[in-house]
């Protein structure tokens, strides 16, 4: 079995605490500014964690006084790591795994948020300080965003003459609505934690010394006494089925998921309910997802 907590990374630190993997962006000397290396490491982590049955949920936070101050703009050449010798077309983007496209054209933040989207574990952002640019859009792919009173959010792309990234035009509109999303990206204003909570960007606001504990408590609330397999399927069903054109399409996936969970952990759940005891779910995400899952997400 993969143990993600044992992996060695340059820009992120890992701690497994009672089934919750705490991922800390760890470049405090530069306010955890985002780099190509950090993108590679986060993408790798969020794909690897799916096969780590010791991890029930993931909490992402920042080291020091910032969450992430955005892209590191001090690097030489194209600071976003893109190959300026290329002239990519829409047709070229049909294969995101093409090595030339993957390394020379694809937005680095989007590689990370798509990995988070595909994650089979609940993911919570504990935003401890400024979250600007990719620091803000990185959080949008998580299931819940908790903020410290010291947190600040800025979708500041317009100030740099670039567009929103990290698939944020997909995520942000679903979180705060189109009107508010447009206001955030057009104005490029910096929001404090209270304002972010008012518009629904963050779930709750906490004092700095209580933020991580609150995020861990939420992670346990989401996962304790729950089937890992059912939780993994539920996460993907909620995100993917909401985008379908007709509820009958969701019904097809619901039916398969219900069928296989009912003969898996669901059998234990029903028996425990009848016997008035806590269930002992044994399904493993790494090995026990039903066969239809891969075909479904690759459609």
Automatic annotation (TrEMBL):
* UniProt xrefs under InterPro entries: ClpP/crotonase-like_dom_sf (IPR029045), Enoyl-CoA_hydra/iso (IPR001753), Enoyl-CoA_hydra_C (IPR014748)
Which Pfam family, an example, fits this chain? ECH_1
Q: By what name is this protein known?
A: Crotonase/enoyl-CoA hydratase family protein
Organism source for this protein? Rhodococcus opacus (Nocardia opaca)
User: What family does the Swiss-Prot or TrEMBL record give for this protein?
Assistant: Belongs to the enoyl-CoA hydratase/isomerase family.
Gene Ontology molecular functions: catalytic activity
**Source organism, top-level taxon:** Bacteria
